[in-house]
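Exercise 3.2. Students should predict the tertiary structure of the chain below and write it as structure tokens, then compare their answer with the key that follows.

Predict this chain's 3D structure.
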Amino acid sequence: MKAQWMTVAVALAVMTGVGTSPARAAEGSFFNDADYRASGRVDSKSGGVIAAGNREAALAGLKILNAGGNAVDAAAATLFAVGVAQFESCGIGGGGFMVYRSADGQVVDTIDFREWSPKTYTFSDTAKVGETGLAAWGTGHNVVGIPGAVAGMALALEKHGSMPKKVFGEGWKQNWKAVLQPAIDLATNGFTVSGASQAPAQALRVPFFTTTLAVYGGAPELYANREKMRNLPLAGDMLELQTLGPDAFYNPFLPGGTIAADLLVEMNRPSPYSDQATWEPSDLTDYRAISRPAVRTRYRGTNEYIGMGAPSSAGTAIAQVLNILEGYDLRAMGQSSADHVHFFAEAMKLAWRDRAKYLGDPAFTPVSDLLTSKEYANSLREQIDPAKAHAFAAPSSDEGGTHNIAVIDKAGNAVALNCSIEWPMGSAVTAAGTGFLLNSQLTDFEPPTTRPDPIPTTAPAWDEGRGPANGWAPRKRPRSSMSPSIVVHKGVPVLVTGGVGGPSIIGATAGAVINVVDFRQDIAHAIDAERSDPRGYCPDPDPNSANDEVQLCLETTRFDNDVLTALKGREHAVQSTNNFGLGCAGLAGDGLPDLNPDPGLQAECEYAAGTVTHAAGINPVSGLRDAAADPRAFAFAAGKTASQQTRAGTANPGDLTALAAVFQAAPASP
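Answer key:
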């Protein structure tokens, strides 16, 4: 691996024509861990590669590549398989975004399959459970948006799929049947339950809905005993989609179809939890996935960033950050230096300020091209003080149950795809008669009033009296942080990525772009490198602190102490993101790391517990295709095991290996 890394480093240096970097980023402890080396990084000289957050789902996509499918075919198969094997993150009950670039660069397309709200929708973000008054945030029927995943994959396959006719028959509909088959096989024959799907938070919500409990209630026991889980109701849903096509999901009057009719019955069923929804048949029949113009900007001359436009905020925000940072020589500053972190943080704050004010569903709030122009970036750059931090943006919270997929096929076609059901386990609702979880995406709208404690809130950003850009409305798509992205250098997709884990997705994805372009890192090192995020997405140890809106969240134990001291000197409120759920301490009073984890957690505490990014790319000199999963996924699995061992002594032998294997880039196709 070391020899390969040197080859890639040389190739990227040639690519940009700049000398040796004073980069200071160090490999994380899990970067060379045996489990990660065996399953987290792959390459291929001439075949396709896939990076995803679930091994069995990535292998489903790989099967399609090996059958002659292209990157779009494989991405669709992977999404459907993720909905089976890592059901808490995405599936046909959710939605998302896809960025596609053909190998020759002649076709660039982005597909919006974000959910929309029903026609009679009224904002409500809590369900009252029984008479206890328990606020089950993100739970229940009224937070469910009309799912878009089925429509999105159908549109993607119709426009860009290319399964060989000699294998799969004529037309994209045969292609459609083929990409569903691996998911049907997984649901029928069984899959490994991931650690995330049996977390205690999910267990508290699932029992309120009998259908969900019947389908998913046994997952924790199956996980604990390392047994395969089968989901026959979901297999039936997938078979219906395979037989009747996408209309089975959206046409409640389709002869022989049951899915759409079951959704309507469920969403109009009286509920004891104050979470009543009202869906009309037209909410389903009128839904469309939409091809939208990509967000595109040049970064440092020969590199092009391609991202997703509104209602995803990520493409616009990342383009703004890159345009602002183009005015600074980050490479000369040094990777992970105080200067690098400071200017990145200030650029991110400015982008987030505009995100809150201007970005939402473009059907309701058109987005100006000015936001991603070089001229506008120049004006924003003037607002940055090199010596002092500013409080430009408040924290925000969204997509936690999310999955990112990166695919490059043997021809060089590239797909970056994000899918989500919002919170892990979505709304916790499964329609009777079906086997998939429904999303909770309508919680991403700006609330009309402040949410009740302890739910965090973002102050509404009013735009010329029209209300917030992301204010709720019927038939509207809520704003998202999902960030499928492709970076191209001289016609070659050198980075295909996205992220998982809420609003910090944007910073992690932008950081990966900078690591590849400015610091000449291969994709594995680029997504492993220590991260910073300036929006307050980490806990402040002082409950009375006002720092939540301005703090700089860092993987503190991976930064030099002099860097942390310098950042504090610039008035950054530095806080730690270091796997705070695993016994990892934050910062001492002087702002330097105060790390006293449970035994065995030192390496795991290097990494943040939130956002993970999986990525693929082509070396523009050697042509080698690489795919890598984020080491943070492995670190979280390892930390969970170590925590069990030291606190309760209940860890299963081999649990680390089983968990780590879940987070894997699929092997390269021949």
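Discussion points: Residues 35-291+405-444+470-490+647-666 form one domain. The chain has 23 helices and 21 strands.
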